[in-house]
UniProtKB/TrEMBL annotation:
Keywords: ATP-binding, Nucleotide-binding, Transport. This is ABC transport system ATP-binding protein. It comes from Pseudoalteromonas tunicata D2. It holds the Pfam family ABC_tran. PANTHER family: ABC TRANSPORTER, ATP-BINDING PROTEIN. InterPro entries: AAA+_ATPase, ABC_transporter-like_ATP-bd, ABC_transporter-like_CS, P-loop_NTPase. It comes from the Bacteria. PROSITE patterns: ABC_TRANSPORTER_1, ABC_TRANSPORTER_2.
Length: 286
């Protein structure tokens, strides 16, 4: 549905944000995973036609986005990580204003706003100022405005950032619902969210696409090589420590090794976070 071929983007300060990026993404929820500075925001701004790449080609559902950016804007929903609102406008009034800006006719926007307020669970606060909303309510409003016009292509940058567990769960349910017949690109630092929500993931590090595939395919190369232990391996052992977390105050380390690395290590099932840290370590050592 979306084809990106050999996209490059270099900024005036010399930063090469996107380096020969190529992707083929299907319909559904797509995860964009990478650390700060990986180029995720640059890629999303480029796909949203908010900036022009230096070269390359982007085709969405037969539309050449570089040649016809206005055609994309008609079918795009965009939720940036940070967005401002008019301080004195209510949720419903602001949705109405945004719908008018998108060129949605009066009858259609009336029906859509009613439907979106229900979908995002904002009916009870429809007449309250968005500026007074909690983080979770504000994010749900952001999704509602992104869905105005029934877009085919939706881009969301860190939609669950700063949300409490209950709000995250509600937002996850909403994202899964809306992604069934649309292309939804979800960018986040929370690897668990991407593994739970997305059927396809693109790994982006230092402006380059390291891999892009369904989650199972990304994890398969590490199967049989991930070990868990509570004891730190010797610094000179050469064993790769992928991650170190804590459970009930006790250390929990995940190691990469083709053979049993230590006597107390237990073989465990690989996950997307293991692949993510594995690629980060590989980049750091090259």
């Amino acid at each position: 549905m979306l084809s990106v071929k050999n996209i490059n983007k270099k900024y005036a300060d010399g930063t090469h944000a996107l380096k020969d990026v190529s992707l083929n993404l299907p319909i559904g929820m797509i995860g964009l995973l990478g650390p700060n500075g990986a180029g995720k925001s640059s890629l999303m701004r480029t796909l949203a036609c908010l900036q022009t790449p230096d070269d390359g080609q982007i085709i969405f559902d037969g539309i050449d986005l570089r040649q016809n950016p206005n055609e994309l804007r008609k079918i795009l929903g965009y939720l940036p990580q940070y967005f401002g609102v008019y301080p004195h406008m209510s949720c419903q009034a602001l949705l109405e204003h945004m719908a008018i800006l998108k060129g949605i006719d009066k009858t259609t926007r009336a029906h859509q706003i009613v439907s979106l307020l229900a979908l995002t669970n904002l009916n009870d606060v429809a007449h309250k100022k968005v500026a007074t909303f909690s983080g979770g309510m504000r994010q749900r409003f952001g999704i509602a405005q992104a869905l105005l016009g029934d877009p085919k292509f939706i881009i969301m940058d860190e939609p669950t950032s700063g949300l409490d567990p209950v709000e995250r769960e509600r937002l996850h349910s909403l994202l899964v619902t809306i992604s069934k017949e649309k292309l939804v690109i979800l960018s986040t630092h929370i690897v668990e969210d991407i593994e739970n929500l997305c059927h396809h993931v693109a790994l982006l590090i230092k402006g380059e696409v390291i891999d892009s595939a369904d989650v199972k395919t990304l994890i398969t190369p590490l199967e049989g090589c991930i070990w868990q232990t509570h004891i730190e391996p010797d610094a000179n052992s050469g064993i790769q420590v992928l991650s170190k977390s804590y459970r009930f105050g006790e250390p929990c380390l995940r190691l990469y090794s083709k053979t049993k690395p230590t006597a107390n290590a237990t073989l465990v099932k690989a996950n997307l976070q293991d692949r993510y840290f594995f690629e980060l370590l590989a980049k750091e050592t090259h």
